[in-house]
Amino acid sequence: MEKKDFTVSVYTENNIGLLSRIAAIFQKRHINIESITASRSEVNEVMRFTIVVQVTEDQVKKIAGQIEKQIEVIKAFYHTDDEMIYQETALYKINSADFVEDLNIQDFIKESNARIVTVTPKFFVIEKTGKRHETDSLYEKLKPYGLMQFVRSGTIAVTKNEMPISKILEKFDTTN
C-alpha cells in the first residue's frame, strides 16, 4: 500500500496528559506527525485534536483503533484530503525597509490573497490562510527579502460529509 496524507480527528474529554499519550501512539510506530491542532469542538466540554500524518490506510486504521483505547477518547476518525475541507494560517514578519524599497512584495501579497496584519517602522506582518502549498509558495517568494520570523498553524479541517460523531457527542453536551 502506498503512503498518503490522512487527517485523524480525535474527539476527547479535556484531560491533562492525553496529548502526550496520543503522541506516544505515533512515536511507538515511528510515524511522524506532520501537523497537530487542538481546540474545543462543537459540543461543550469536548475537545478535538486534528492530526495529519503520511501513512498507509492500514496504519491509520490501527492508529485510530489504538487512540480509541485511551479512556478519555470518545471517538477517532480518519479521512483523506479528498474528504476534507482544510486550511492553515501562516504569519510572515518582514523588515519594513525591504517592503518600502521593493514593490514586488506588494504584488506577492495581492497575488497570494494574503493580508497585512500590522505595520511598524521596523517590520510588518503578513497573514496567509490556505493550503500548505499556498503558504509554502508565499514563503519561497518572501524568503529572498529576509524573513525576520515565520510561523504556521497546524491544519484545521472539517469533513465534506456529515460526521457520525454528532449523535455520539449529544450525550456529552451538558448545556442542554
List the helices and strands and how they pair.
Blueprint: E1 4-13, H1 18-28, E2 33-40, E3 46-55, H2 57-68, E4 73-80, E5 84-95, H3 96-101, H4 104-111, E6 115-119, E7 123-130, H5 132-142, E8 147-152, E9 156-159, H6 165-170
Q: Could you tell me the strand content as a percent range?
A: 35-45%
Oligomer: single chain
SS-based class: alpha+beta
Determine the CATH superfamily of the largest domain: ACT domain
Please report the first level of CATH classification, the CATH class of the largest domain: Alpha Beta
Termini separation comes to 45 Å
What is the CATH-assigned architecture of the largest domain? 2-Layer Sandwich
CATH-derived topology of the largest domain: Alpha-Beta Plaits
The H/E string reads EHEEHEEHHEEHEEH
The total number of structural domains is 2
Average of per-residue pLDDT values: 89
Low-confidence stretches: none
Shape: elongated
Alpha-carbon Rg, integer: 19 Å
Q: Helical segment tally?
A: 6
Characterize the biggest β-sheet: 5 strands, antiparallel
Question: What percent of residues adopt helix (DSSP H or I)?
Answer: 25-40%
